Amino acid sequence: MKILALIGSPRKQSNTDLLVDQILIGAQSKGHNISKLYLYDLDILPCIDCRKCKENNYECVLTDDMQELYPKLREADYIIFGTPIYWYGPTGKMKLLLDRLRPFIANKGLEKKKAILVIPSAEGVKACGPLLEMFRMSFNYLGIEYAEALLVKAYEKGEISSNQKELKKAYKLGVKL
Description:
This protein is an alpha/beta fold. It has a single domain, classed as Rossmann fold. Helix content is about 35%, strand content about 20%. The protein has six helices and five strands. It has helices at about 15-30, 65-75, 90-100, 105, 130-140, 165-175, and strands spanning about 1-5, 35-40, 80, 115-120, 145-155. Strand 1, helix 1 (about 15-30) and strand 2 (about 35-40) form a beta-alpha-beta unit. Helix 1 (about 15-30) packs across helix 6 (about 165-175). It starts with a strand and ends with a helix. About 40% of the residues are buried.
């Protein structure tokens, strides 16, 4: 099984990154093929609503790093979307990515994929509702199966590293994939 993790945090070795790593370590222990990309390392242009992705070959015409990411998304069985909460939504890069998934509505390239959400928040689980709903609705529109979410309370960079309970939960999630 192929698992693609997309890190939407601008900080490496952050809470999002550390939690996703534990999921990937758990998945790798079961022999799954894993890969991880940092969205803030990629050039992702905003969707310009040109609607070219709804024509002919159903592909986005913008030339940026999404052209390399599209095949990886198509090949993955599971996609992990990791983002801290910014104003009760995803980070800017994660939102850019989501907007650029529009070609998959027409070409159905993500149907039957499974998604896992990893969302650390300063306020904890109670703050995650709006973001969870945005992802659920987007997944439904794209034909992606919402598999599970790991919602944790964490704010300072790397503070999750001292929370063995949540790290263990993340690892077990990876093992059960």
